[in-house]
Structure formats: C-alpha cells, structure tokens
Backbone:
C-alpha cells in the first residue's frame, strides 16, 4: 500500500522548520493577541465578575451574587431609561432607514451623484460633540433656525429641548444627521441590482413604485438588514448627543431623554457603583443580542439573498 | 513555478527585531516610576480641575511655590472630569500627590480611605491646618467624622443677584432688595413682563435658571434634606414641601394669573394669556452661561441665584449691568440680617491615599492657604475668601462689589453645605428630577417629595448595607 506523503512521518528538520514557521506566525500576531487579551477580553471578563459584586471603585469589590441584577428589577430609573431607549430605537431606526433608502434611490440615477453622496456623507465626519452643540442652537426655541423655518410656513415651533413632549423627537431628528454612511451603502447596493430585472419589470408593465417594491427592495434587502442591525446597536447605545444636548437638565425635562447608556455611565462614574453599572452593561448586551436575533429570525422571511 | 520566498527567515528576523526595538523603545522612552528632577528636588504632581483664567491663576500659585524654596517642585496638571480620573488613578494605585476636588467629594473619599486625613499627617507645625483661621460655615466643609480631610482652595457662597435698573424701572427701591420670600414674590410680580398674547418678555425670578442647586430651597423655609446623625432622608418634611409648593407656584401662575393676595391688579394681567409652554419657550432663548446671552446679563430675568463668580461673567461680557447682591430670601420668621442662610460651595485640596511624601504635600498645601495666596486666588476666581480675616484691599479691589455679602454668609452660623453622605450625587440626581417634576406640575409637591424621600432612603439603606458587608 502506498503511503500518502502528508501522512508520512516528518523528518526532524521538517518538524523544526514547521515549528519555526509557527513561532514566527505567533510572534507576528502576538502584539494583537496581547492587546486583545489585555484591553478587550480581560475587561469583558472582569466586567462580568464585577457585575456580581458591589464595587465602588475606591474600595475593593465585594461579592454579592446576583443582587445587582435583582436590584435592577426594582430600579425606577433602569426601567425609565430602558423605555426611553426603546422608544428612541423604535422611532429612529424606521425613520433613518426610510430616509436613507429614499435618498439613496434618488441619488442612484442622479447627475453629480458622487457630489451629493459626499455631501450626505460629510456630516458623519463631524465629531458628535460638535454636532450636539450645533443642534443645541438649531433647536433653540427662540433663536433656533428650525423654529424660524417653521414660522415661515406659519407653524409656531415648540421649545424643543425644554419641552417634555418635544425633547425625544428632537433627539430622534438629530439621529438623521448621521445617515450618510447608510446612504453610501444603499447607493452601492442599488448600483448592484441587475439591469435586466428592471427590463423584465418594464415588460411586465410595472410602474416605478412597483419596481421599487418588487425588484429594488428585495435585491437590496441584505444591505437593509445589515444597516438596521448596525444602526440598532448604535441606537441602543445612544449617549453623546443627549448627554451634551441636555447638559443643564440631565436627561431633558422630566428625564424624557435620559437613555440607558447615560444611566450606566452615571452609575459607573458619578454614583461610584461600578458593579451595578457592569450588570447594566451585561443586560444591555443581552437586550441587543435578543433584538439582533429577532431581526435575523425576521430576515428569513423578508430578506432575499441572490443565489438562494 | 514561482520561486519559494524564504519567508520564515525574514519573518522571524523582522519579528524579533521589531519586538526588540519596541521593547528597547519602551525601556528608553516609556513611563518612569520615579519622580525626581536632575537638581534633586522632589517632584509632586498636582491635578486641578481649572482651565483658562482660573487655571492660569493656580499655575501662578504653583510657580510661586516652586520659586519660594528649592526642595520641592510641584507639577500642575489641568485635568477635566477630575473626580472620575482621580478615582481611577487611586483605584489603579497611581494617584497624583495632591488633587483639587469639590467639597461634596469628601464623604465618599474619606469613608473609602481614598484620601489621607490632613490632621494626621506628620509635618512641621507651621504647615498644620488651623481650623480657627476659617470662616464659621467654611470649617465643617473641611471635616468629616471629626477629622480634617481637606483644605479650601477657593470658597464661595450662593446669594441672590438682582438687576438694579430693573428694580428702579419697576418702582422698586434698588437699595432695598427682597429679604423675605413674601418680598421676593412681590418683587417678582412687579418685575415680570408678559405681553397681551402671553409671550413672556421678562421674568422676575425663575428657580430653573440656572437650575444648578435644586436642593437649596427647603433651607430657606427652615428645612434640610438629610439628618446626618440618623442617616435619614427628611426630604418630604413640611418645610421642604412648602418650599417646593412655592417653587411650583412660580410655574403655576402662567396661564392662571397671579394669586398674590396684595397683588396690583393692573400689573401682569396678561399672565392668564400665557402658559407653561410660553415660559419654556422663553427659557429656551437663554444663551450660554459664560456669554452676553446669559439670561441675567441679557436682562431676561431680573433676579438670579448665583455664586460670586457671576461678577467675572458680567465684567467679561456686559460691564454695564448694574447688579446688587443680597442673601437669598427666607420666610419672615427666619430672617436675621446678621446670620444669613446660604449654600457653601467650595473647591478643596486633598491628598490621596498611597502618596509617598504627604509631608511635602502639606508644605505645598500650607503655601496655598496663606492669606496672601488665598486672597490672590479668590480675587482672580472672583470668589469670597474662606478665611475669617480679610485685608481691606481684598474687599476694596475685589471684582465683585457685593463680595462682602458672600463673606457674611461664609461666616454665618446658618451657612449650609450639601448633605454629608457618600450617596450625595445620587441624592442630587433625585432632587434635580424632583425640581423638574414640580416645575412641570407632574404631581402635587407633597406627593413627589414623599416618593423622593422613599427613594433617597433606599439609597441610604443600600449604602449602609454595603458598609456592614465591608466591615464583615
């Protein structure tokens, strides 16, 4: 019986050579491995441990079992911020998705597409803190440009950031500022839709809206799914804009814009409850995982992948 | 066929070479544990929160100290989010030598053993802290559970600022500011201007502007928030409820008219045409604090609760504002001209646990507490002096012409500070939320305060349980 060369016993020289190759490989990736372990895996593991402790940062952590998780159930601000964040996700994701798909569809066949694409993408490069300051003024009840524009069409704008009814819509509207990245992805996806599908749709006598609904949307649905997932993860962690926007009154009037990550931050660094904040972080992870899982489950029905 | 590239040899050499170079670089240029200068002077790191004008003044004090002797060299680091960074530095075992925090930090830091009691540091007698040098209401700020943990870097007291020109125009005597809540209500009634369509043009006083001290109102009604001896929240006390009912009445009057018994019916008849939305719209027109669009500077409000530093903002942006200063009004029976009630709000210096040379830190701290240094810093920062003794020049040259009012509050036996508990920031968070809810009339103040009291007590009980757990 012939012996396959691969299964033949290796010579000492071959083994040494292989060992050296492996070692070189490990050496090359070692900075990343060390960095990843020290700055990512270890903190994640530590935060899991701290979530079962009472840890005021200035003192050592004391094991308290699942008390932090139990306390979350009775914490009014936990539920308030969870509700506010849920509302934000429910409003901002559909709004941003519809707008970005719509804009991408308009840009797809537009003249000077690259220019408009760049113009829409540009705001995402502005630091969030700077954007927040700009929006503070845009939403100013008296001098803000948004209310000025509304007054031109006879609408008296509300005191956005000081009104418990309008603070949340203001934060949702600010979220539109960052749709540039999604628009770029959607435009790329739209460019990828085969032309013959539209030709076939023309032959079937479809109008532009039906073509969009029956051809375009199914063809870009994987990109829609990707964008919804990434935007949702971002929306669940909304922090910087409302943090700066409502610097004078935390969380806005009656805390209607007090979000989960802000409350987590407060617990960790303002109230010195690092253990509690760690438990909140893990609950947040589970919520995001569950939401993403739900999206994937829905995608089986609504997302169309070319090639099956 | 492509010739084999001797990848392993290159990769190994390059990898080892790169790593060795990185290691060498770390050894040569990496962080140093020791802090000694070439001239043999001991180096102390001092973290402080101030930037800009205030930061430069403190930097000058540090330079003066460095020039005053040749043994110690203090390095000044202007640090934002200083309390958070200090906590992390202490927890990580690498704290700065001296830190500038706020007085409300003392209970949490002291109870955790994160700072050293200054009264227990072995140092030269001339560097010891002498409490009797400080104004009456300033002394407790430095202490916690019978020990001195901090010194006051700059101290300030909160008072009522009013626009004299507005007073004059409204027929009020600018030299007789309101002393009691009743007088303040009357002044507010005269000073508020509402247009026939309900648009608010000027507010006499708004509790929500700037809204930094949601917890002070009850003190001016004879109440307080927290009983330190029993570790109990008394937020829902009748005095506090009365204070918040008063606060709510200021929001309530818009859309309903003024309910003052002796109110002049010819004034503010437009209040009924207004609404809470109108007043919120009016509030949203207020600009940044440190700008000419500041509500008080721009004349949108006539009276504001503020610290002495407001004069610096006025001098920088709108010098022509004719302001007066008076202790914040109180209920009639609480009025005592010689013993005003007011909040004490201070910046403090502490020494973190684990520093190697606390006695050297004390030398620097003692330098900052010299009357000359305190007065220099207080003048530039536009604050009152925390010390009892003040030179006539300090008062005469101070940028705030009403600094004597603040000094009086500082030396009053009724000057108060925020509740002395490590859970204060959680307390404050609830108190802020409560003020908002009273203002937006979410529920009657008595009901809101009772709920908040319960929540505050839960926080206190949790902290107590944690204490017991740690002791066990």
Residues:
């Amino acid at each position: 019986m012939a012996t396959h060369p691969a299964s033949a016993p290796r010579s000492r020289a071959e083994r040494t050579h292989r060992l050296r190759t492996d070692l070189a490989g490990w050496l090359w990736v070692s900075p990343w491995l060390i960095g990843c372990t020290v700055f990512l895996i270890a903190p994640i593991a530590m935060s899991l441990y701290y979530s079962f402790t009472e840890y005021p940062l200035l003192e050592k952590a004391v094991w308290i079992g699942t008390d932090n998780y139990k306390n979350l159930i009775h914490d009014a601000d936990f539920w308030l911020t969870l509700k506010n964040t849920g509302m934000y996700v429910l409003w901002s994701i559909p709004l941003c998705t519809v707008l970005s798909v719509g804009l991408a569809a308009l840009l797809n066949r537009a003249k000077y597409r690259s220019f408009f694409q760049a113009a829409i993408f540009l705001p995402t490069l502005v630091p969030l803190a700077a954007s927040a300051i700009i929006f503070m003024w845009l939403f100013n009840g008296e001098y803000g440009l948004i209310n000025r524009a509304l007054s031109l069409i006879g609408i008296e704008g509300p005191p956005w950031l000081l009104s418990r009814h309008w603070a949340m819509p203001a934060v949702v509207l600010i979220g539109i500022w960052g749709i540039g990245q999604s628009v770029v992805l959607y435009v790329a996806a739209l460019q990828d839709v085969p032309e013959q599908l539209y030709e076939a749709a023309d032959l079937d006598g479809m109008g532009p809206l039906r073509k969009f609904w029956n051809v375009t949307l199914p063809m870009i649905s994987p990109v829609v799914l990707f964008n919804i997932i990434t935007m949702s993860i971002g929306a669940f962690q909304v922090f910087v804009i409302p943090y700066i926007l409502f610097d004078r009154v935390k969380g806005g009037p009656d805390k209607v814009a007090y979000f989960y990550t802000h409350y987590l931050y407060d617990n960790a660094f303002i109230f010195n409850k690092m253990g509690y904040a760690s438990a909140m972080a893990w609950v947040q992870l589970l919520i995001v995982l569950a939401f993403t899982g739900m999206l994937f489950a829905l995608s089986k029905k609504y997302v169309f992948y070319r090639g099956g | 066929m492509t010739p084999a590239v001797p990848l392993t040899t290159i990769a190994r050499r390059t990898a080892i070479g790169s790593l060795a170079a990185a290691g060498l670089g770390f050894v040569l240029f990496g962080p140093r544990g020791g802090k000694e200068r070439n001239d043999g002077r001991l180096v102390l790191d001092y973290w402080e929160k101030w930037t800009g004008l205030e930061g430069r003044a403190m930097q000058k004090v540090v330079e003066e100290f460095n020039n005053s002797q040749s043994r110690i060299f203090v390095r000044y680091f202007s640090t934002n989010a200083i309390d958070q960074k200090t906590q992390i530095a202490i927890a990580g075992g690498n704290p700065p030598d001296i830190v500038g925090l706020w007085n409300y930090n003392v209970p949490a830091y002291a109870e955790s053993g994160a700072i050293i009691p200054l009264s227990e540091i072995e140092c030269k007698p001339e560097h010891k802290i002498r409490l009797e040098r400080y104004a009456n209401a300033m002394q407790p700020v430095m202490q916690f559970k019978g020990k001195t943990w901090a010194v006051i870097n700059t101290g300030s007291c909160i008072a009522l600022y009013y626009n004299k020109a507005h007073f004059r125009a409204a027929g009020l005597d600018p030299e007789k500011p309101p002393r009691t809540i009743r007088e303040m209500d009357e002044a507010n009634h005269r000073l508020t201007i509402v247009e026939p369509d309900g648009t608010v043009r000027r507010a006499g006083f708004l509790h929500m502007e700037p809204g930094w001290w949601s917890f002070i109102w009850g003190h001016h009604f004879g109440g307080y928030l927290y009983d330190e001896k029993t570790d109990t929240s008394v937020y829902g006390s009748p005095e506090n409820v009365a204070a918040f009912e008063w606060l709510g009445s200021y929001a309530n009057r818009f859309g309903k008219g003024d309910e003052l018994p002796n109110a002049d019916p010819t004034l503010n008849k437009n209040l009924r045409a207004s609404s809470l939305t109108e007043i919120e719209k009016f509030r949203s027109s207020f600009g940044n604090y440190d700008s000419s669009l500041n509500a008080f500077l721009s004349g949108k409000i006539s009276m504001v609760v503020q610290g002495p530093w407001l004069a610096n903002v006025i001098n920088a942006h709108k010098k022509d504002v004719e302001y007066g200063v008076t202790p914040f009004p109180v209920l009639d029976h609480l009025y005592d001209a010689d013993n005003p009630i007011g909040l004490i709000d201070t910046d403090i210096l502490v020494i973190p646990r684990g520093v190697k040379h606390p006695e050297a830190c004390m030398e620097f701290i003692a330098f900052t507490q010299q009357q000359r240094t305190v007065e220099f810093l207080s003048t530039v920062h536009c604050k009152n002096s925390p010390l009892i003794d003040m030179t006539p020049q300090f008062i005469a040259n101070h940028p705030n012409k009403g600094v004597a009012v603040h000094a009086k509050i500082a030396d009053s036996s009724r000057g108060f500070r925020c509740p002395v508990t490590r859970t204060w920031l959680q307390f404050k968070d609830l108190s802020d939320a409560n003020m908002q809810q009273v203002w937006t009339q979410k529920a009657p103040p008595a009901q809101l305060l009772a709920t908040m009291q319960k929540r505050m007590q839960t926080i206190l009980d949790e902290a107590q349980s944690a204490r017991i757990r740690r002791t066990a």
About this structure: Chain A touches chain B at residues 17, 20-21, 23-25, 27-28, 30-31, 54, 56-59, 62, 64, 71, 76, 140-144, 158-164, 248-251, 253-255, 266, 269-272 (CB under 8 Å). Residues 194 and 219 of chain A are 9 Å apart (CA to CA).
